[in-house]
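From the shared-data thread, chain only:
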Amino acid sequence: MADPFKIIVPMAGFGTRMRPHTWSRPKPLVSAAGNTVLGHVLHVLESVPDADSAEMVFIVGYLGEQVKAYMAANYPQIKAHYVQQTELRGQSHAIAMAREHMHGPMLIVFVDTLIDTDFSFLADEEVDAVIWVKEVEDPRRFGVVDVGEDGWVQGLIEKPDNDRNKLAIVGIYYFKRGEDLLAAIDEQIGQDMQTRNEFFLADAIDLMLKKGLKLRPETVDVWLDAGMPETVLHTNRHLLANGRDNSDEVSKRPGITVNAPVFVHPSAKVENSTLGPHVSIGRDCVVRDSQIADSVLEAGAQVEQSTLHASLLGERSLVRGVRGKVNVGDDSQVEGE
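Structure, as tokens:
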């Protein structure tokens, strides 16, 4: 019997760039366009070969129990394992925590990355490994792949000092044999091969390339980031504009003016308000006498007599009498004069 597909999802970081929201929840449980970031990732992963038998391994840390509860409540059909990473020593160190599951075909998915792709081709993939990339104008802010004239990846370069290699690494990797990657990581850690005092996955892959790994790039057109408030808002805009809105349904409600695209959860209450464009309203939210654009309201958030744009409101937060832009964590309150 063939090994089931393994999907390793490292998510043990503190998500400091997403504060204040990540004081009270892991970054993958932040919302955009009517779903959590993790939920959007899981939707794309449905195209993995034989997805019904695939197993997921979550490398969790701070607040990791929330991820387990979220998966049990919303995706009970997925066979999921959870490994606690208490010491943050880099990507390779995190992935190696899943060593007992690292055999057979394997995907690594860094969960603040959203791409539009179809993984079904992996059923017939013959190469050793695949790395997903996107062409960017200025690659100096990213890790990039160095591709030879033969089309194979020759090396990985972290934040290059020129723009010769424009294929940025988006944070998703496939290995035909997870055990081969684990051996390289063990060698990397054994030799203390660190970059900026962390064990980066790129260094383990470089070890594999030197031993003959056949690694090819897979280019994507859509690459969304959900690691900072401004990029969550950008991701929300893109998803709403590409099929995640329910504007037609919302516009039938009385007392709402809709500037599409928007998503409003059926349980949310909206009275005498204008929404959109690019607004996501979560479960059990309440919006009264307000105008909201380009914003995300998490479950239970309440907005009254306010005019908001470019705002993120955490769960059960309250914003009243405010005009402008706010970034409010869970269970917080902001009131104007």
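The chain is about 20% helix and 30% strand.
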